[in-house]
Protein 1
Amino acid sequence: MQAWHNPYGQPEVSAAAWRRGSDGVVPMVSSDHALRNFRHFPVEAQRSAQAAAEDREQRLRTIIKKRSGKAAKLSVEASHRLRRLLGDDNWTELRDLMRQERMTVRDLLQPPQGLESSYDSLNQARRRKAKAFLRSRDIRREAIVAIAGDYHEAIADVFAADENISRGFHLSNNLDKWLSLSPFHDRALPWGVFEPDDSENPHRWEVFRPPFFGFNFGFVPVRNDNFVVDRLHTLNPSVGDVGISITMEDGDAGDFDYASGDAFSAIAFAFVPPATGLVEVLIDAQCVEATHRLETTDEWGWSNSHTTQQNFLMLDVLHPSVAEPSYAEMSNLDETTDDDESFHQEKLTRGTHYFAQLFSAGPVPAGQSVVVCAGTRSFDKSGTNDVSIDSTSDFRWYISSVEVRISP
């Protein structure tokens, strides 16, 4: 595939992976693997980053296998519990009824007659048929709901976020904290108003700002057959532009379904630690977009679902002694619903500055150049039984500055 060179001085990327936006050239990448470019950095930093990346990828493969196996087992167990509750004959007849009613609703929505049909009315009609079926067999709706409740609680544990998570901060509402963290914060860093610290203090701060010349991004999906999970990476290192959009869609939720999408986009730079210890960073990020969207449709009246979306600012120091990235949670959505609902939430303020104080999950040695990544991560999860899911999260940040030091 032909390679294309970004005139802004960024690494070469396949021409098919980029789109041109109103604010410049923005890569939109589609890959299930972590991709990175550190070729502008010292060879020493590239080697340690490569070794760390290989360890991370092995860890991710283990995580995917573990999550997939546990989620699939829970889905099967819930289905078996439901079958035992209904009995084999009733279970088969119910599944046949559900398949037939889905096809009936679909057919009634086709043009030209379907142009005048009400989806809500058709959905209510099929729910009445399903409820009548349960009543005729003396099957209690509450018993089905109890099985679903156990399933959703267990599936949430499978997709629990990492433990290495702290909380991010709205800068103007936490100005005193921001001013106390670094001597550089008494001036306007985004406008370049600062003088570097040239002292011999091994714990002095160093400031990194756009343009950046390295990047790192990746995606880890887990799902069963009924879900479609995808993402869109926004990454323009020359201006510190990083973003993630994750979609999870289950338009034909016929059983106990599950999905998660875990993706990150980050800029990267090289840092030479003046002492051995944990890397501490202060990320100043300007919010460009921060939207949570979720639409659910209860198809049968006993259905249920639980969907979460989380966005983070992140630090990753790619060195073999650093076990994993560190995260600061910035925004989340957490909705449990058994009804037809639509959620649109934007909790962060566009154009506003936010910050994160993060520490590496392991020490780095003095004098050895290392690759430091700063960016954003989104981790979205959904478990559903017979509720259709349309979930989208859109987050985009400008990394205004990253201050780095070895923590005292």
Protein 2
Amino acid sequence: MTAEKALDKAIRQASEAAAYLKENDERIKALKLFTPCVTFDAGLMGDEPRYLTLCCAGPNNRSLQMVVFTKEQAMFLIEHFTKYVAILDEEEEETK
């Protein structure tokens, strides 16, 4: 599979996941001002200033978004996501 086809597939899958969340997840439905986006790629911008990026797709391939982070913002998110993942791990262990 070419890189372009792989990217197209990743965008399509993310868009389908966002559409599923929008239609079926009551928590998302309750947030009427928000449209769910699902990530399909992460990267590092090559030119100065250097930023980290997450690329996201909205429902039905209607929108592609790029979320841009400074190194400091990314470290903040990593710290918090690490805690959240630990919580999920604990919950999975409890259900075993």
Protein 3
Amino acid sequence: MSDIQPRACPIADTLDLVGERWSLLVLREVFMGVRRFADIQANTGAPRDVLTKRLRSLEAGGALERHRYLERPPRFEYHLTPAGQALEPVLIGLREWGLRYLPDPPPAPRFLHTCGADVVTRVVCDACGEPLEGGGLVTVREDGVTGTPPPAARVTAVRR
């Protein structure tokens, strides 16, 4: 038997919560203002039992919270918590990736900033403001070992 243990990291732990199709589609809908179970189900196509499990998981994980809107029968709306709102760049990034790299991407809603311009994701250095576009990243593992990824093509977000 091998004693190989998978690398523990926040990416893996986050994927445990949101790294599954239905969870991401639920978050997409709530980001777009769809808050009721039946509407989320209609827009995602998720089976009822799967949707129930994902909503409970996202609530338990702190990304969503329920707000009762009807006493009898009890009915709830789902709202993003601050932790859920922090996933917004992830969803925008997934949308951008799909529009850029899928062979025939379906029509997608636009995300506009309050100034009216399309929103794109961009990762920048917190200290100097330089964008991270296909390089410039040095990884430092928990054991202190550093490394750099292999050279990659520069990728820039396209404004649509």
Protein 4
Amino acid sequence: MTREKDFDVVVARREMTQLFRRSGYRATSMKDLEAVTGLLSGSLYNAFGGKQDVFLSSLDFYLANVVKRRIDEHLHGDDPMECIRALFTTTYHAALGKERGCLLTNTAIEIGMHDKPTHTKVIAGIRMFEREFLELVKRGQAAGKIPSTKDPQKLARQLCVSYQGMLVLVKVVATKKVLDEYTDSILDSLT
């Protein structure tokens, strides 16, 4: 008979996910995970498995709750160009300071292709954005805001790369003015 969990799994996953986003996989210890969740290591292992399992669970949580929410909030509006601007600017307008960054981008930089399960989840997140960017570009082309002579798949991939680049820049560029200029140039490249 299994013991019922006496903690909120969603809250624990959210806290662990934020810790991994801030600190990275390698710098996060099981003691750190205990500290942010208030759970002892035995409870963590019983609920989630070892550190790698916790991390993969955190990536799943991030995809389902952060990436999906960002897409839903910013990329489903009426004006495709404003949707793109909103997504890019929220990476820095909403989070100036040490809390900047994206778990997917940080993980891609830290782990890259060295761990297949992690790599698979990072690629899944990037593809989520790429699919949405493709739909936005097609809508922008249909509305006459983006030239129909440009390949929508290439533009979607360009936006994906630009978005990942912006998520790196927000960690080192401290002024909204400069980041707004980067965003403007990304949007200008579409037209």
